[in-house]
Amino acid sequence: MEVRHGKKCVREYTGDMPDQTSPTITTADTLRSLCAHLARAPWIALDTEFMRVQTYRARLCLVQLATPDTVVCVDPLALSDLTPLLELVYAPHITKVLHAARQDLEVFADLRGGPPPSVFDTQIAASLVGYDDQLGYGALVEAITGHKLDKLEARTDWAARPLSDSQIRYAEDDVVYLRDVYLHLETRLKELGRTQWLVEECTTLTDPALYRTDPENAWRRLGAGAMLAPPAQTILAALATWRERQAQQRDLPRGWVVPDPILVEMARRMPDSIAALAAIPEIKPSVVRRDGVALLEIVAQARTAPIQPRWDTPERLDPAQMTLLKKLGARVQERAREASVSQTLIAPKRELLRLVRRDPACALLRGWRRNFIGEELSALCGSS
Q1: How far apart are CA 196 and CA 128, in angstroms?
Q2: Range 215-304 has CATH code 1.10.150.80
Q3: pLDDT < 50 positions in the chain
Q4: What's the pTM?
């Protein structure tokens, strides 16, 4: 099997990759051969291209893989069985290197029921060694390697075939330079003694619970529900459950079944007839025709069900708590500057609020955050 062999991956970028295009894997035999070859690697740079504009779950359209001596793309649309690829991606002894991995992991979780293990997220790693929080892949590549990535294919329809050489080259670049980014960040983490910090963050990122789509918990996606009265919250939760099931069954985006604002307005108005439902601003007539009876039934059942408030409405902080929150925030900002770590990664505002409210679930009370600053902040709370 032929694959593209580039320059040996080094800790500092030393030049462009050879100007040639790797083959795209489209047959079962070449996929098995590729995966057998890559299974010996300790780490693999990984990226995916997918489409999810018209579907509930993302449609995996391309998988890019790279090791120090190999760069290759796999075409899932040409393959009926992705088992060898999935076995490779889910191998616990291989570190999968991704940038901003959440969406890629979600794609694999849809295929396998949970995300792959042993992930190194370069976006998180970068924020732990002094780069800006949420730094994009192109900016990080340029900062570390000096190479400016081409953006010409950023809006490509990855489900269309055939893919051009330009599209393949663009896709390859997402893993070609990821190798050097990974080695640079891995070295910096070791130098700063923060490797375990990343392990903890990526363990959280690969928690299967993050990728479950239980219809009974669909209400959690609707933050606007916190503005409703408890009876309306009960109705909105029931509507969200119904919509989630419909989206899954029809393989449609949630908003294509019924948009969020319409669900919220239905819960607020509690329509009891087709005419009342149709009077909701901006509701599509097609929704009323197709799902009106079902929606009215959901509302009617929820109106007679026991009221179950779903959204927490925390009490406002008193003046002393507000002063403490500002004090904690200032200390986090100072400590982040001293250690060159992203302030929002160390202590998002929601975690500082939890600490002020003495919430034992606060992330600052466990793991690397506890040792880094959590115990100090807890002491400040205790002395306030």
Answers
A1: 11
A2: yes
A3: 1-21
A4: 0.89
